[in-house]
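In this supplementary section we document a worked example of the pipeline. Step one takes a protein sequence of length 118 as its only input; no multiple sequence alignment statistics are reported here. Step two produces a three-dimensional model, which step three serialises into structure tokens for compact storage. The input and output of this example are shown verbatim.
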Amino acid sequence: MGGLEHIGGESFLGGSIRRIFADAMSSEPIPDAKALGFSAMAYVAILVGIALALLKAFVWSKGVFTSEVFGYALAGALIPGGIAYAIAARKKVRNPNRFALWFLLLCIFFLLLELSHR
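The serialised model returned by step three reads:
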């Protein structure tokens, strides 16, 4: 039929499309993202992001630990966290694993910005 291979009496493409639409139109409830929670890799990504914020603060202070470094590290974690929250953790689009990924990527980005100025 139009050059498509037939598998089991129906075309491969037609069967795939029907399955996709059947899954999308099924009445089964979709699991809530809140119920899924963070995966183990998401926890690791958040911990690495916080460590990168601390590293960024130490780069900024040239290795001297003061109260300013603590504030800089806190801001270095809260700003990427706020941006990641706006992207992936609002109630409308809540996805904890995507939040962790964005948080890590933004922490890496801000660390690279800090390193580019040194």
